Every structure is written in C-alpha cells, then in structure tokens.
Amino acid sequence: MMPSLLDRLIARQILYSTLLVLNVLVALAVFFVLIDALKDYGQANFGMFELIKYVVLRQPQQVYELSPIGALIGTIMGLSTLALNSELTAMRAAGVSVARIVLATMKVGLLFALSILLVGEYVVPVSENLAQTGRARALETSLQKKSTGIWLRSGTTFVNIGEVLPDLSLLRMNIYDFDSHSRLRIQTSAQRARYDGGTWRLQDVRESLIVGNEAVQSRRAPEEDWRSALTPEVVSVFAIRPESLSIQQLHYYIGHLQQNNQDTRNFRLAFWQKIFMPLATLIMVLLATPFVFRQIRSGGLSQRVFIGIMLGLVFIIFHKSLGYFGALYALPPVAASLLPIAVFFALALFLLRRAARGL
Fold first, then answer.
1. Distances 355 to 54, 71, 76, 285, 351 between C-alpha atoms, Å
2. Looking at residue 174, what DSSP letter applies?
3. Is the pLDDT of residue 215 over 70?
4. Which of 111-120, 193-202, 330-339 has the largest mean confidence?
5. Which of 238, 270, 296 is the last residue of a domain?
C-alpha cells in the first residue's frame, strides 16, 4: 500500500529531526570515545591515524545504543514543528483523528526499528571487531589476531591461542619453541590454560620434542606449568565483548560458553537487550506523541525537547542499571531487558489516553 500524503508529510519531518538529533548525539559520543582513547595515544604504534580510525569505527555502536533517545527526541521535534506551523491543527480540523496521526508516526517508528535491527546485526559486529582488533594491534605489536587465532612472539618462542574466554582463560593453545637457527625444537599443545599465581596452568598437554632431523619424541600430561611474559591483562583485549556480537552470534556463543562452564549472564543479557532494542525504539516513538497533542495549539518546543531528553536519559539509566542489578541478583535476563520497555510502554499509553481526551 502506497503511503498517503499525510504519511509522507509526517515521515519527512520526523526523519529530518531524528537525523539532526542523532548527529548531535554522535558528536557527543565522538568526544567521549576520543577522551577514553587518548590515554593510549602515543603508546607503541597507536598514533593519530589509529586513534581516528578507532574513534570512527566505534560510532556504529554509539548510534545503536543512542537510537531510542534519538528516536524519542527526534519524534518530539518533528511533530512539534508540525504543531508550531499549525499543520497538526489543520489535520485535526480536516477530520484526521489522533489515532490516524499516531499510526502515521508509528510507521516511521517501524522504519527506525528495522534500521536499528539491521545496524545491530550487520554493521556493529564488523565495526566493533575492526576497532578493537586495530587498537590491540597498534598497542601490542607482538600480539596479532588472525584467522588462525591470536599469535604472540617472545624471543624464539611463538604462541598461538585459539580463543580467549570471558574469565580470561585460554583455549586451544599451541607453543612453538625454535632454536637459534630457526629450527623447531619443541611443539606443545594444550586444550586449556588458566593463569594462577604468575604462571599459566596448561591442561591436557601434548608435547612433541624433535631430536635430530627426523626423530620425534612425544609425551602427554594432564597438567603442566608454563611461565611466560603473557598476562591476562594482555590477552583481555581479545576477549569477546557481548555488545560486539549480533543476535545470531550471541545465541551460538552462549551455547559455546555453557559447554566450557563459563558465566553466561552478561551474554544472555546482551542477547535479550538486542532482541528488544527495535521494540524499545518503537516505544520511544510512541511515547513522544502525547507531548505534542497535549498542547497542539501552543508553542513550547524547547520544553518538550527537554522533557524528551530527560525521559530518554531515564530510560537509558533504567535499562542499563536494571541489567546490571539483574545479573547481580539473578534476575532472568529476559525480564531485566523487557521490564524497562514495559514500564515506558504503559507510560506512553497512559499519557496518550490523557492527551486524546484533552483535545
């Protein structure tokens, strides 16, 4: 069904206002990300180019997280502009109901929700991976992440790490010791490694000692200590961050962590928050409409925008804090993610009903 003239008018104004708001929010996000990254500026190879690259690559994640408040303020500004130009008054005088205007607004909200879903699924994982990997490479030139895992060189020893788990233990380690003539002497593999008291405790160890040109001596051990300059702080930059994964990746990775007896609460929380993020954006658009209809014949744009900013900040704080408290007090992640959205949905319906009666 083709959108009507009313739909196009409302959509154009809301889209313009929301893009303007998001530009302001992204500018603020750039400032805060830049301040956070400046502490590493000048270390190793983390120069101006790498700093700018890191800040730019972090912006899709910032846009994704700020999308609900951007949609809320943008919708308030867009509808308020129509009200100030008496266009909403003309619509009402022509017999257009409040429900019809809200429906046109929610169509724009659906577009926002779909866009946010696509950004979270396909843009954020790629940009976050590039940002964090590029930063880690610039800060620690001896530690590189490739398709075969993480590689570290220390003297004549090369270490390959398959994966860094959330508790900073390591999976699928391979240690290659070379002699002064660059010939492989010992190859050690371990299924897992945990840092304990200054040393790594390797588990399920297999060692191959090369004697002469062809002879190989092999041995196995359930556990073995390995001393190295490698620390959990160094490998932590390669630990997977839940916010950098898509919904599908989170679903797979949660199962993987459960198989390795890892705490999955943060990842399950991120999974449900990403599931409900498009819905949260849609609810914010709905919440914006009552503030315009309550004073359709008056000005007060700055007041409405201020209220929108406050509500957006309350939502973000409520959303984030409830997630943390939920993880701390064993609240189911789905409940911790859905409760703030349900509260603001109820608030939107209450305010919208009052606004409709007041017109």
1. 45, 20, 14, 15, 6
2. E
3. no
4. 111-120
5. 238
* Cα 180–chain centre separation: 45
Identify whether 345 is part of a domain: yes
What pLDDT, on a 0 to 100 scale, did the predictor assign at position 240?
86
Weakest mean pLDDT among 106-115, 124-133, 189-198, 299-308: 299-308
Q: HEC states along 255-294?
A: HHHHHCCCCCHHHHHHHHHHHHHHHHHHHHHHHHHHHHHC
Number of domains making up the chain: 2
| Angle in degrees, 0-180, between the axes of helices 5-37 and 98-118, rounded to the nearest 10 | 40
Question: Tokens for 131?
Answer: 């940002």
Using DSSP's 3-state secondary structure scheme, residue 41 falls into: coil
Residue 358 scores a pLDDT above 80: no
Q: Which positions ≥6 away from 259 have C-beta within 8 Å?
A: none
CA–CA dist 293, 276 (Å, integer): 27
- Residue 9 falls inside a structural domain: yes
Q: Which two tokens stand for residue 115?
A: 């866009």
Question: Which residue intervals of 45-144 are DSSP H helices?
Answer: 48-84, 87-93, 98-118, 124-139
For 190, the 3-state DSSP assignment is strand
Claim to verify: residue 343 and residue 280 sit in the same structural domain: yes
pTM of the model: 0.84
Q: Are residues 185 and 318 in the same domain?
A: no
Q: Could you tell me which residues come within 8 angstroms of residue 223 by beta carbon, excluding any fewer than 6 positions away?
A: 201, 202, 203, 205
> Per residue in 287-331, pLDDT tens?
988 877 765 544 466 777 787 788 888 888 888 788 777 767 778
Instruction: Yes or no: say if 343 and 321 are a contact pair by the CB < 8 Å rule.
Output: no
